[in-house]
Amino acid sequence: MTGSPRSKGRGQLYWFIARHYLGAGRGRGLLSLITWIALGGVTVGVTALVIVIAVMTGMQEDLQGKILESTAHVRILEAGTSLRLNNWEQVVEDVLEVEGVVGAAPWVLSSVSVVRSGTESFYPQSASLFGVQLDTTQTPPTDMERRIMEGAASLESVDSDLPPLLMGRLLADRMQLFVGDTVVVASFENLSANVMGGLAPTLRRFQVTGTFETGMYDYDLQNVYTTLAHAQELVGIDDPSVAGGIGVRTVDPSRATEIAGAIQDRLGFPYYVESWEVTNRALFSALKLEKIAMGLILFLIVLVAAFNIVSTLVMVVADRTREIGILKAMGMTRAGILRVFVLQGAWIGVMGTALGTVLGVALALILGRYELIKIPPDVYFVDHLPVSLQLDDVGKIVVASIVVAFLATIYPAIQASRLEPVDAIRHD
Predict the structure, then answer these.
(1) Torsion angle (degrees, nearest 10) of CA 244, 85, 65, 385
(2) What is the DSSP letter of 85?
(3) Which residue has the higher pLDDT, 191 or 173?
(4) How far from 6 is each of 9, 10, 12, 153, 331, CA to CA, in Å?
(5) What is the pLDDT, as a whole number, of residue 1?
(6) Lowest-pLDDT range, 50-54, 195-199, 362-366, 379-383?
(7) pTM over 0.90
(8) Residue-wise over 71-80: b if at least 16 C-beta within 10 A, else e?
(9) HSE on the CB side for 234, CA within 13 Å?
(10) How many angstroms from the chain centroid is the CA of residue 301?
(11) Do residues 294 and 94 lie in contact, with contact meaning Cβ atoms separated by under 8 Å?
């Protein structure tokens, strides 16, 4: 049901007066200037908030994607003094029956040292060796294993009969290794006695079959991959049914913790089930706290802009006191005067918020598309400033900005509505 013609006419009158007060009349250039300063403050505050929140969200999403590329959604370990899980075939069968699980496979993980073969200098590089199962009939638990199975990253047998080794690009570049080069991998998990009665690590020669790049600095500098059987042999696992653990892929990474609980209930003791969210809880909690802190700090810019709105309206009230008195003498009610000044503040808040949102979204899209800001990957895990715009984040910023701007109008609007006609007309 639409309003009556009289109410529409009043609304147009209130807006006409509010717009008149916002503009600069003869000799009132200062009022127009401070109006635009208040508008600019809201615009700058909203722009900064949109960009910073988009960057923090992009950092979380980018880091999450790179972690999940080489990390299973859920890891299953067996309690014990060593990283060993027995009878992995039966465990995989049980896990695949849990709702929400789409893939599961065994793995072997070991900290090793890698040395370039055929050189006089002995300078080992530490690495994390992953032994993965190359079973194309099953859904791989990680994107890296999927890339290996699809041939994008090679772990195929080589002509030299040496076991294959897939290396991170940064590690290969540091050691100046290329496809076809051979390296010596030393494992300290499988120690053997030497002729002097001491203990020596197990040494095996591998041939580099390819390199990979995840964009995650630590992974590209630390991770190397080989087949499950060769990793088992290197770390001294003689039984093929024994692995280091099992990686599980879920239907949705955000449900990994929930599904991990269901797997734990099914397997029971002595198995320990952990989701990627729990494993990286400290990192993502720090990012979430940083996002909240940055949002609160930058929201102070919007609050400062709100004080600019208050000061603007107070000066308008002081400058237009006589006009307000004339309007009240002509029959305008307190509610009408109140609405006039609320409309002024609301206009500043809405227009500033709209301009800030458009500008912030545009800048965020440009930063995200062209990767204009580069950052050191060894410090921040990523090589450029990631940006991700989320509709709910932008909506919260818009609502908060408009609410703050509206609240800023209340005090000066009430003061204007309380002016008595006679005193206001006599005001000099």
Answers:
(1) -50
(2) B
(3) 173
(4) 5, 6, 10, 74, 15
(5) 46
(6) 195-199
(7) no
(8) bbbbbbbbee
(9) 32
(10) 23
(11) no
